[in-house]
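Researcher: Please predict.
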Amino acid sequence: MLAFVQSADFLGLPLLAHAALCPLLVAWAVLLARQRRARPWLRSARLGFALAWTAAIADAATVAAQRADPTAQAPVLALLWLAALLTASAFVVLRAREQGDGGGPAAEPPEPPWWPEFERRFRDHVRRGPRPPAPRRPVARV
């Protein structure tokens, strides 16, 4: 097994291909995250869910291809890299919106017109403290 891993052909793809695809996948996720701030369609939940479903289909195709022909590893790994790319894209599109990400409202909505009066009355109520309990009156029985 060790001799196989040390060879230039690691799981059907050359080691150089794996060394190039890993940083490309990370670079794609970073680029997508940066472009997400500038392009509102990259923040779309529909796009994110479509990417997630496509990634699930690519995963299923990978499993089906592996079961159909266990000796053909290159197409299986190509599908696996495609699924990883789609999964990373779906993650970046669907992640929670951060502060300053451009996803939330631009400014706070204005106060309702009744709010200042409510605040004044509430502060007066708190300053006065609780009212003493009203004396109990006996209830007349009929």
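Model: The two ends are 97 Å apart (CA to CA).
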